[in-house]
Each structure stands twice: as C-alpha cells, then as structure tokens.
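User: Just a sanity check before I run the rest of the batch. Below are the structure tokens for the first item. I only need the designed sequence back.
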C-alpha cells in the first residue's frame, strides 16, 4: 500500500514506461491474437489496461475524462497505445491536483469491499503487470518481439551473442 503520492508516482512511472514499451510493439494484425476462441484477444487485453486506469480510479472519487468507447476495443494498435499514454500521464496530474498523502488512507468501495486509496493504487499497478504478462505471451504467439521489462529477453541475449537460458 502506498503511503505517499510521490511513492506512487515513482512506481507508476516505472511500470507505465514498461507498459508503453509493450503497447508500442503491437500492430493492428496482432490485436486479434487469442489463446482460445473464448479468451480475450491481445487487443481486448491492451484496451482493458488502457481503460482500467479510469475505471478503477474514478471509484475513488478522482475526476478525470474517461477514454471514449471503454466497452469495445478499437482495431488500431496505435490508438490503444495513445489512449494508454494519455490516461497514464493524466492520472499523475489528477492525483497531484486532487489528493494529498492523507487521501491515501481514505476508504472507498472497490467492488464491494472497502479499500484504502493507497491499496487501490497498489492493486492498479499489480493489475497492469498481470495483464502486461498476458500480453507478452500473446505477442509471441502473434510473431511479435517482446520488449525487455525487468531484464533481457531471449532476443536481447541472442543480439548480444550470448546463449539464452532455456
């Protein structure tokens, strides 16, 4: 749980940059990639990440514009990536302008439970990391390269002339 806004902003900036790197490697053709016909597509997961920022944080009383068309994933990878960037950067300003550190201890109804706002911010980041991991699997299945997140990828190792671990 975050206890200061600055603590959240530092963590958010690190994680959102990683998500931007993933989003930037998507292309329109790959958005339809799914593990099974009943599963979310890569595009639907990417759009879910982009729109969840508003969906989750508006429940805390923060006021900021929602992405248009939250219910349906667009067919443009570039549009999804830009929507994510806009929401990601907006939330930093919104939190700085509308909250103080004391707001992080306030309880809000989140999906039928009472969560402190600092916990909601923590779960927002974990939620994004979870879905970003799903995206990288689907990206590989779609033939896309995945970016390094917390360390080098297999392709990074090969480019450096090293043998990747199996």
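Assistant: Here's the designed sequence for the first item:
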């Amino acid at each position: 749980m975050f206890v200061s806004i600055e603590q959240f902003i530092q963590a958010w900036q690190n994680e959102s940059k990683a998500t931007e790197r993933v989003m930037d490697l998507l292309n329109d053709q790959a958005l339809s990639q799914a593990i099974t016909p009943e599963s979310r597509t890569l595009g639907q997961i990417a759009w879910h990440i982009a729109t969840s920022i508003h969906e989750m944080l508006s429940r805390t009383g923060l006021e900021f514009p929602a992405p248009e068309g939250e219910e349906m994933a667009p067919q443009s990878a570039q549009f999804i990536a830009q929507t994510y960037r806009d929401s990601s950067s907006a939330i930093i300003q919104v939190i700085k302008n509308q909250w103080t550190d004391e707001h992080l201890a306030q309880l809000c109804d989140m999906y039928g439970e009472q969560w402190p706002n600092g916990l909601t911010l923590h779960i927002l980041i974990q939620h994004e990391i979870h879905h970003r991991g799903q995206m990288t699997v689907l990206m590989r299945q779609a033939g896309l390269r995945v970016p390094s997140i917390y360390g080098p990828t297999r392709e990074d190792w090969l480019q450096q002339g090293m043998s990747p671990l199996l």
